[in-house]
Amino acid sequence: MTRFLLRRLMWFAITLWVVVTVSFFLMRAVRGGPFDNDRALHESIERNIKARYHLDWHPFKQYLHYIGPLNLDEQGPEFLGGDGTRPFGGVLTGDFGPSFKYRDFTVNDIIGQSLPISVSLGVIALLWALALGLTVGIASALWRGTRIDVGLRLVATAGIAVPNFTIAGFLVIGFVFVLPLFPVAGYGTWRHLVLPGFALGGPFAAYIARLTRTGMLEVLSQDYIRTAHAKGLPPRTVLLRHAIKGGVLPVVSYLGPATAGILTGSLVIERIFAIPGTGSHFVNSALNRDYTLAMGVTILYTVLVYSLNTAVDFAYTLLDPRIDLEES
Amino acid sequence: MTRSPAARWAPRLAAGALLAGLLAGALSMAGGARLERADFTFNNGTEVTTLDPATVSGVPEGRIIRALFEGLCIKHPSTLEPLPGAAERWSLSEDRTVYTFHLREDGRWNNGDALTAHDFVFSWERFLNPLTAAEYAYQLWYVEGAREYTHLIDDFAYQPDWDQNLWVEERGESIVRVGCSGYLLAAADGGDLVAPTVGPGDVHAAGGTVARLGGRPLHLSLAGRVRAVNAALPGEVSALARDAYGEGWLLELEVAPGALAEALGRGDVVAGAAFRAERAFDERVGIRALDEHTLEVRLASPTPYFLQLVAFYPLFPVNRRNLTEARERWPGTWELRWMRPENIVTNGPYTVEFRRVNDRIRLVKNPAYWDADRVALGTIDALAIDHLGTSINLYLTGEVDWIDRPITSIIPRLLPREDFNPAPYLGSYFYRVNVDRPPFDDLRVRKALALTIDRRAITTSITKAGEEPAWAFVPPGLPGYRKVELTSEAARGFAAGAEDAADGFARDVERARALMAEAGFGPGGAELPTIEIHYNTDETHKDVAEVIADGWKKRLGLNVKLLNQEWKVYLDTQKTRTFDVSRSAWIGDYADPNTFLDMFVTGGENNRTGWGNLEYDELIAAAALEADPTRRMEHFAEAEAILMDELPILPIYFYVTRNLVNPRLGGFHPNVVDEHFPKHWYWMDDAELAARRAVQPAEWVEVPARGPAEGLYPPTTREGRGR
Amino acid sequence: MERSGWDLGRDDVEHLLHEAAAMRGESLWQDALRRLRRNRAAWSSLLFLALVAAVSLFAPALPLPSPVTLDLQLEPQPPVAPWSVWGSHGFEPDYWDLTAVDGLLVKARLAVFGDWQTGHWLGTDGKGRDILSRIVWGSRTSILVALAATLCSLLIGVTYGALSGLLGGRVDNLMMRVVDVLYSIPFIFLVIFLITLVNEYRTELEDRFGIDREVVFFIVIGAVYWLTMARVVRGQVLSLRNTEFVDAARVIGASTARILFVHLVPNVLSIVIVYLTLTIPAVMLFEAFLTFLGLGIEPPKVSWGLLAVDGSEMVNPVRIYWWLVVFPAAAMASTLLALNVLGDGLRDALDPKLRGKD
Question: Do B214 and A272 touch (CB under 8 A)?
Answer without folding.
Answer: no
